[in-house]
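User: Round two. Same drill as before: sequence, then structure, for each protein.

Assistant: Same drill it is. First protein:
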Amino acid sequence: MTSSIRIIQTEDGSQSLYNESLNETYHSTHGALTESQYVFIKQGLDLLVERGDKKISIFEVGFGTGLNALLVQKYAHEHTDLDISFTTLEPFPLSSKLISELRYETLIDGVVQSDFEKLHNCSWRVEHQVLENFIFTKYNSTLEEFDTNEKVNLVFYDAFAPSKQAEMWEKALLSKVCALLSDGGVFVTYCARGQLKRDLNSLGLMVETLPGPPGKKEMVRAVKSST
């Protein structure tokens, strides 16, 4: 699969990937870094911090380039009062060549290329104490195959778009992810499809439609109701 993937430049100067077999990019062409910072950090992680959460567990569907994980690592470095764990799934890891050519450190202050490569090169299914307050674990697994009893309070749903991977947005898989959320847990995604919002609502989440990042009208944030 990685043989059909190539690096592209997005409008904010950051890189993303284009998957030729899916005819799909990994991030918005209007700005990969801008999208990740807005959707997942500002509308997700920042919300938990602003409400006073100090222990934050994140589950990501779609490790991809590792940009979201790198931004969370940077966040942990800058917020030493937080305790962050980050678990992510990636069934189709990138090649070493692609990883070495992605240069996010040129646009993200406070990180170096070795930080980025470490996230990609560390072993699977093992907890890595990357920072004193940042634990990182990745699984070479599909969402269908993944199984855990752990609860999280933040989900980054960063799968390919419904038009490209419809199965990732079916209610059965969304239900599996929502079951991982603790009460008050937050689900964020760049997608704002009507069916997604209806499904999340039926799964016990309070759904909010927010303005999207540049080039996208809307995104979704949903919070799991207390039972």
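Second protein:
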Amino acid sequence: MTSKLFLEILNAHYEKEFPFVVYSKPNELKVKALLQDDKELHYTENFEEQGFVFAPFDIRKKAIIIPVKNDNLIEVESISHQDFNYGNIESDTNTVDFKQKKKAYLELAKKTISKIKEGTFKKVVISREERITLKEKNGIKLFLKLLETYKNALVYCFYHPKVGLWLGATPETFLGIEGTRFKTMSLAGTRKKTNSETWQKKELEEQQLVTSFITDAISPLMSNIKISEVETTQAGDLLHLRTTLSGVLNFEQSHLKILLSKLHPTPAVCGLPKEHSKAFILENEGYNREYYTGFLGELNFKESKSRNSNRRNVENNAYSSIKNTSNLYVNLRCMQIKDNEAIVYVGGGITKDSNAEKEWEETVNKSQTMKKVLY
């Protein structure tokens, strides 16, 4: 399929207001789309279905799935540059709203720091929304701009007439499963890319809290756990600290729903202790995160895996196996298009060493990921 035909099919589906998701995984040229042929809202509770899952921050609420069925998955090896004809997208930031958001965020940050110093929490991730007026709201155009701008992220556009239009470019893997092999990452700490390579105590502590939480959560469910050294990774103009964790799932205990409930939401998007910090967020943030800091991606896709990596060895390649694979990502660096506005979601981790003004600046820096494609 040519990229031109791929985009024509996608646009036709969008114009009919039928549900779909179009996405490209990190560092891949291939672009996939799942097209639903009715407007029914499908949910998954046990995460046993095959499809693209879109889960909220609050796991008590149902996760949406666009099922794989009847050849409704289309893909193209890459989008041709001549098809990146999205033109300019006119938008405008509400200056008054921006000032009010800053005041509210600083007050919440100071309150959070105070609670942490009292010993109520170790870490809390607080967030905010930023609203930008749009002259048009073409999701496919925005997706193409994100796709061209962020090569090392999961870039997606999710639409359902009963849910809305969401787009993002997230750098964070939630989990990857291939057969019994499991992989996840701990991603925390943020700063702008500069000549200085020094991370502050606050950022290193934040990263270690996330890594320790994930290690404790997955240890009862798997064996052969390996934890990488902390490394610096880049997402757009920002740098983060990243640790990779992998292992082998224990079939008797590793039901995907159990694993997801133990991990989500991680301290990278919520805090520690998890339930206490989550309750604090829901009570104090003053808005509904919805699917921001939830998770999304391919659920229980069937992939053929050869026992021999040499494709020319036809005899050994005959001994291939079909494995269940899931590739899920944390829904960071995202926005919702609602009415005539783009609602950009950003947040940051607060610890005892946090400074409210610097935390605000971090959210401003993070907001540029989405705002870059709006101007």
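Helices lie at 3-15, 95-117, 139-149, 201-218, 256-263, 274-284, 314-317, 356-371.

User: Perfect.
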